[in-house]
């Protein structure tokens, strides 16, 4: 069988859960150097001085342009688009017909009738499907992430973050920066090049996201590094970058809610068997044969505030039914030090070993989900286990039942996969173990809360 679509791949495998849990793809790839100095100093720099994060390669940018672009967005996004004009951006959230999240990404409003959606591919693929197959006068232009694209990117994309970020940017600009509100855009000059900027940052500290034509990226980066030389600016490698969103409180990859249901079948037939959705890997101690048990609602991810019932959109009816029901809440779980040390010590002793904790980010699958237990009952899912030098602890983000989402509640994380582990190449043979953790509704970094 010549497998060309996600739908064909699921049929050939028999079950999307087994397809994803045994995918040969590991964690999401950030194709930049792993370290520029060392990951500890790079992490501390976004808290104490400033960092340059190179976002030019790991995200998919899809541009949508035409007279129907606003209708397209309104028909798909849960967000409100009232008063959404040029030079603004927002966290775009898209759901399936049953109200479960397909993906989220940053939506940039570049000019009248022209937008782009930037991030992991799920949300923008869903929008592109409707633009290309629906009754919309919209042109779609794809700029794929570098692991799926051997051509130069359209744009470079950098973030300058940290307490000294404004000083670095003003020095590079040789003057004061324009005043710009959060999630608004502006323009200024660096190295003689016009740079567009968004007031937005992964590290939840001061700074801007910058972009411009890819061919100008090296000169702009060189000017930024020179400007930051005496201000403690450090470049962030992939090891530190994989931890920044967890420290700040953003769950990078919800499970794309596309793998089941007759209504979603045309989309699965449109999606490539070589694409993100068909090759992402599921990992962790949570295991269900029903792929829909892996789906998230907007409330699970902390996006309930983005759901606006001021327009008709895909999934609205289902979300209206969910709105007043109990939801899971997004929290941080601060892991018990003794239990973490026990995991590390298992590799130094004979006998069974526990699933390795890779420093500083232990994501061994694209979509990691571990069971969270309270009084021996599952109350949610832990995702993205990391250590940062700012928190000085192992921790993870989690989506847990509202009644357990109270500061200080002690829960247990079941760490590792069942039956010695799945067939992913990132999974060594191991046994499961329990890790105690305490719930926090606030960021664990005391200087950045």
**Beta-strand share of residues:** 25-35%
Globular, elongated, flat, extended or rod-shaped: what is the shape? globular
Radius of gyration, CA atoms, in whole angstroms: 22 Å
Find the CATH topology of the domain at 39-58 and 153-236: Gyrase A, domain 2
Mean pLDDT: 96
Strand line-up across the major sheet: 8-9-10-7-1-11
Number of strands: 19
Low-confidence stretches: none
Helical amount: 10-25%
N-to-C span: 53 Å
Largest sheet: 6 strands, mixed
Number of helices: 12
CATH H level, superfamily name of the domain at 39-58 and 153-236: Probable tRNA modification gtpase trme, domain 1
Query: What is the highest CATH level, the class of the domain at 39-58 and 153-236?
Result: Alpha Beta
By secondary-structure content and strand pairing, the structural class works out as alpha+beta
Reported CATH architecture of the domain at 39-58 and 153-236: 2-Layer Sandwich
Summary tags:
449 residues; alpha+beta; Gyrase A, domain 2; 6-stranded mixed beta sheet; 6-stranded antiparallel β-barrel; 12 helices
Give a description of the structure.
With 449 residues, the chain is α+β, with helices and mostly antiparallel strands. The protein has a domain at 39-58 and 153-236: Gyrase A, domain 2 (2-Layer Sandwich), CATH 3.30.1360.120. Helices cover 22% and strands 27% of the residues. The chain contains 12 helices and 19 strands. It has helices at residues 6-13, 16-21, 39-48, 69-76, 122-133, 165-173, 217-227, 238-248, 265-270, 276-279, 316-322, 337-345, and strands at 50-54, 60-65, 88-95, 101-111, 114-119, 139-143, 155-161, 185-190, 193-198, 207-213, 233-236, 282-283, 328-335, 367-368, 370-374, 377-388, 393-401, 410-415, 433-440. It has a 6-stranded mixed beta sheet with strand order 8-9-10-7-1-11. The model has no long low-confidence stretch (mean pLDDT 96).
């Amino acid at each position: 069988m010549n497998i060309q679509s996600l739908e064909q791949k699921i049929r050939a495998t028999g079950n999307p859960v087994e397809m994803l849990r045994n995918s040969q793809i590991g964690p999401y790839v950030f194709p930049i150097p792993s370290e520029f100095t060392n990951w500890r100093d790079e992490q501390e720099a976004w808290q104490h001085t400033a960092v340059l994060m190179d976002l030019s390669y790991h995200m998919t940018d899809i541009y949508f342009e035409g007279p129907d672009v606003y209708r397209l967005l309104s028909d798909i996004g849960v967000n409100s688009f009232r008063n959404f004009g040029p030079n603004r951006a927002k966290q775009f959230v898209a759901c399936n017909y049953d109200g479960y999240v397909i993906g989220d990404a940053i939506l940039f409003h570049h000019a009248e009738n022209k937008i782009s959606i930037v991030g992991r591919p799920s949300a923008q693929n869903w929008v592109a499907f409707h633009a290309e197959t629906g009754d919309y006068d919209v042109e779609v232009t794809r700029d794929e992430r570098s692991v799926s694209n051997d051509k130069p990117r359209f744009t470079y994309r950098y973030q300058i973050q940290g307490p000294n970020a404004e000083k670095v940017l003003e020095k590079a600009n040789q003057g004061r920066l324009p005043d710009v509100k959060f999630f608004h855009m502006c323009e200024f000059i660096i190295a003689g090049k016009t740079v567009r900027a968004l007031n937005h940052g992964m590290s939840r500290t001061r700074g801007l996201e910058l972009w411009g034509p890819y061919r100008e990226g090296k000169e702009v980066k060189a000017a930024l590094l020179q400007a930051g030389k005496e201000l403690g600016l450090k470049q962030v490698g992939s090891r530190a970058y994989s931890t920044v969103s967890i420290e700040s409180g953003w769950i990078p990859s919800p499970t794309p809610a596309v793998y089941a249901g007759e209504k979603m079948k045309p989309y699965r037939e449109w999606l490539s068997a070589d694409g993100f959705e068909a090759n992402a890997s599921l990992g962790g101690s949570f295991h269900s044969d029903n792929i829909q048990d892996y789906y998230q609602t907007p409330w699970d991810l902390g996006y309930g505030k983005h759901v606006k019932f001021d327009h008709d959109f895909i999934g609205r009816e289902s979300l209206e039914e969910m709105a007043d029901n109990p939801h899971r809440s997004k929290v941080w779980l601060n892991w018990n030090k003794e239990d973490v040390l026990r995991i590390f010590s298992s590799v130094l002793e004979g006998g069974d070993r526990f699933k390795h904790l890779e420093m500083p980010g232990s994501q061994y699958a694209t979509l990691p989900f571990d069971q969270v237990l309270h009084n021996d009952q599952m109350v949610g899912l832990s995702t993205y286990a990391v250590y940062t030098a700012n928190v000085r602890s192992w921790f993870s983000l989690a989506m847990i039942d509202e009644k357990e989402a109270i500061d200080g509640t002690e829960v247990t994380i079941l760490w590792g996969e069942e039956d010695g582990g799945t067939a992913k190449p990132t999974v060594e043979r191991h046994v499961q173990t329990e890790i105690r953790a305490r719930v926090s509704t606030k960021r664990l970094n005391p200087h950045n809360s």
